[in-house]
Amino acid sequence: MFKFVVTGLIAWTAIFSSQAVMADGPVRVVRVLDGDTVRVSDGRTVRLLGVDTPEKGEPLAEEARLWLVEQSLGRVVTLEECAEKDKYGRTLALLESSGRKLNLKLAGAGLAVPMLIPPCANTVAESVLEASASALEIRRGVYGSGFYDPVPHYRAGEIIGEKGVVFGKVLNIHRGKKAVHLNFGSDWKTDFTAVLFKRGQSRFRSLGLNPEDLVGRNVYVLGKVKQYYGPRIIVSGPEQILPLPVELP
Fold first, then answer.
1. Long-range contacts made by residues 57-60, C-beta under 8 angstroms, separation at least 24?
2. pLDDT by residue (tens digit) across 101-128?
3. Which of 199, 151, 18, 187 is nearest to 91 (CA)?
4. N or C: which end of the chain has fewer CB within 10 A?
5. 2-137 — its CATH code?
6. What is the pTM of this model?
7. Which residue ranges make up each domain of the chain?
């Protein structure tokens, strides 16, 4: 399933270009094409921004479509849309129905994974990541497979060479010449670290996100665990770090 997240992101990066997000008037959803695409009453096809559901024939694809049918079909929704369409002519937008942003609800239901492409996804990036973390926490939807069984950061050394999910609190951050290190323990030579090289740092910046904001947060880190001065995962983008929502006082 992790491979699905990465390949989907690469493909969409190549085909999508946008400059801004703008509000649009209310429209009615007249057809649900799949788990993340609808047709609205003015004739446009709308692709939900910031999320990606399984493709037809993949596990949970039909469940995602039926969820969107229940939440949107025949209802009046408002759109916050990208200024430019994708190469298929689809509008990319946030769908809001009765005060609920369906993009975030879909991610929170575990029926979609984050797919964050700047600049339009900047408006929803943090919320989508947190919604996905909440779904992973209770192993809902796409996060129900064995791949997503979280390993505590102090046991990350047990899955060296494997793809998986490491869970813990980011203790501190170190900015080196070549990489940013999110440290989960007091000894960087032996404890688990999430490492962001230039590519990872650039993707965070492009989405208006700062790795320093993760310090003190409980997060899930997705990827292949490697051994280099302790276990580590190299992070190429925010989709690999899902922070649990901050509890309000």
1. 58/4, 59/142, 60/111, 60/141, 60/142
2. 999 999 999 999 999 988 889 999 999 9
3. 18
4. C
5. 2.40.50.90
6. 0.89
7. 2-137, 149-243
